[in-house]
Amino acid sequence: MGAVKTKRMPRAVREQQMLDAAVRTFGQRGYMAASMDEIAELAGVSKPLVYLYLNSKEDLFTACIRREATALVAAVRAGARPGLPADRQLWSGLTAFFTHTARHPDGWAVLHLQARTHGVVFAAEVAAMRAEIVEFVTQLILAAARDAHRDPDLPEREVAGLAEALVGAAESLADWANTTPGVTVRQSAATLMNFAWAGLGDLMAGRRWTPPDDEPGPETAQSGLTSPVT
Amino acid sequence: MGAVKTKRMPRAVREQQMLDAAVRTFGQRGYMAASMDEIAELAGVSKPLVYLYLNSKEDLFTACIRREATALVAAVRAGARPGLPADRQLWSGLTAFFTHTARHPDGWAVLHLQARTHGVVFAAEVAAMRAEIVEFVTQLILAAARDAHRDPDLPEREVAGLAEALVGAAESLADWANTTPGVTVRQSAATLMNFAWAGLGDLMAGRRWTPPDDEPGPETAQSGLTSPVT
Amino acid sequence: MGAVKTKRMPRAVREQQMLDAAVRTFGQRGYMAASMDEIAELAGVSKPLVYLYLNSKEDLFTACIRREATALVAAVRAGARPGLPADRQLWSGLTAFFTHTARHPDGWAVLHLQARTHGVVFAAEVAAMRAEIVEFVTQLILAAARDAHRDPDLPEREVAGLAEALVGAAESLADWANTTPGVTVRQSAATLMNFAWAGLGDLMAGRRWTPPDDEPGPETAQSGLTSPVT
Amino acid sequence: MGAVKTKRMPRAVREQQMLDAAVRTFGQRGYMAASMDEIAELAGVSKPLVYLYLNSKEDLFTACIRREATALVAAVRAGARPGLPADRQLWSGLTAFFTHTARHPDGWAVLHLQARTHGVVFAAEVAAMRAEIVEFVTQLILAAARDAHRDPDLPEREVAGLAEALVGAAESLADWANTTPGVTVRQSAATLMNFAWAGLGDLMAGRRWTPPDDEPGPETAQSGLTSPVT
DNA sequence: CATGAATGAGGGTTCATTCAT
DNA sequence: CATGAATGAACCCTCATTCAT
After folding, report:
1. Membrane-spanning residues where (chains A, B, C, D) (predicted)?
2. All domains in chain A, ordered by first residue
């Protein structure tokens, strides 16, 4: 198994092969369970060559994270074209996101599962990428508010929290779609848009769901599903 | 550190001590980095006894997952009392969830981070628990629809997706709250309720955000935040 | 080969076996060329046990140095009994030294060759032992001066230099005796006594060999072998 | 750093550059810790060329030993000019020896430390050179005896031992001088001459320090510093 | 049951050494 | 000859796991 053993390739090519193998192995086995032996074999090279090019397991993992993070951000940015209205941009950004994570499940596992579980150094690496996406979504939300000519009193802090929640929900859905068979990209994106867009609209309109007092006891709460809307 | 070394305890108690130590070690060090030596020492027990009671590292980890999963589900179920209206049930269920994950960060790390990153066997174990919670939320959504006397055309698949998204968002928020200092349980729950409830209400009212055709091309869509309502 | 594989020995015994094997291997192969595998096999144990008891190759080497250094100093001290006159004490100290180094050639190689060639940490370890012996010899020289009622103007600094030279010569002779077949302990000791004792006496009497001017050119120097004596 | 990269040099020159780099690296890092990569880089040469010219690490090391040994012997021989009386010849030989070792510390480290600590093959190489120097010193001692017209009963074996001791002491002093700052060549040579010359003179005059019987027991020996003379 | 003794198996890392270009 | 690509063979170290007492 593994790539066909072709000899004497230029360094750049070999490095990509190694990163391919590493992402796959790290994504499936996990960072610690992945052995450099397995990665080297899967890449069709000897272990010393992996070390010659990528120095150490940590560096190799970091290189994987960087490559996958860059690719993911690029995919999302390429998906959401700036000319469109905000909701359409969000839609196509989500579509691109789900498409990319579905096409690169190991890369996504490396970013979302492995990198966050094995040391702050790696976690920081993905946190940087995530922050970029969150910022992107934040701008989208603000743009949507401008589009709707409604900018009542949404403090920047709250917008950031909403973007966090949206991104978090998207990440969870990506995991779910990757694990559950038969879920299409459009379904995931549509679910999330439906789930989130109205909530955003309500918030911007100043309508909120008010939590009850802390330990309410038996009271006749009459809040229904339609209550926040009206 | 570690439990005080007391002799001759009944097996059930000893096992709980071991699981306590294991959950803590697995949660903090990670599955692979946790050593049986450390767990045994933290439990105040000799290593052979750990093997006598729990067979292997894998079995020990599985036992940890099962115990923590059961506890989490129980906490959520206990939180949401059946008599209340659906949104209040969801609110108290979320509150219970965030409270539990905040009080048992190592258990939560075991379930949400470690179990999903180290082999399908463990992942399946948490998937079962998660399915239980998702089903619980699904029933809540359906009950909410009944409460509102509006059950137009919500296909089961879509409800499942919504429940997934809600649970996923809750999980993300739990992680975020566990990592970010100064975030209270009420804040997390309120953020999520605000974010989600309106979307759910809109969906049940038949209002949805309609995705564009697949490769949209340059079209002059002027949908703003209110557009999905129309 | 190696020790007969006896199982379940108390730790102290096993440790000595390991140190025996380590001293032998380090002495013959050298620190870097010695492999932990070989040492473990020679000791009749598995490699992990060596690590369990002695932590690392460095620690193992340090333990070897300490054990051999302590043994050597003890042997020399035991040899030179305090009641005798200084020259006799020196004689028996030298005899003990040569006897010990001849009986433990690997230990001597560890101390004199390996420890000095592989890192300052190890070198410092033997330097401490050597300083102890040099101090011992220094005291012997001073005692000899007292015995002979001649304490003219021998500055402490010079005595230290002489002790250094004497110890250095003894070390070299030990190497030589270990490498050249047919050299007895008595021969080595006698050679060194004859070589050194008169020089010491002359120095204490204030007689020195005076070096010529720096670049003398062709001059009729008439210093013979007897000149310093007179 | 390293030699300036100049192209197309004759083989002999290239080889010397490699040997220079090798001696320096071996002397500072030690035989095993020195890597062929480092040597090649320091020599300003590609690694395959090193192998083309010098075959292997072992051969390269042997070549270093031979070159440095030859240079050292030549320096000593050149120092001691045959016309002078024996003590002056010894003096100038020692001076040359200390001068050379001080000027080529890496070469000296290779000969005296590295070659003796890494396998019998290398040790034999330096042993041959050392034998040459010892023989040279032996001849000097015999010449001195002739000069003094006193050749009583000096057995060849004993002369050899004396030469060994003298050379060994010189070697120790060279190490000491190389490690201790502020020690001049003249000081080293003077120390050794003072230390040794009287002993030699006494021996040639037939005066020796007589060792006691093997297991002496409690006897009232009152030998002081002057006793061997009597 | 608790303890100390003990190990098989494997993981990360390095290095001398060799070809093809 | 110089260079970059490539590797076989170790080496140090660790850990889950098991017995004998």
Report:
1. none
2. 61-204 (1.10.357.10)
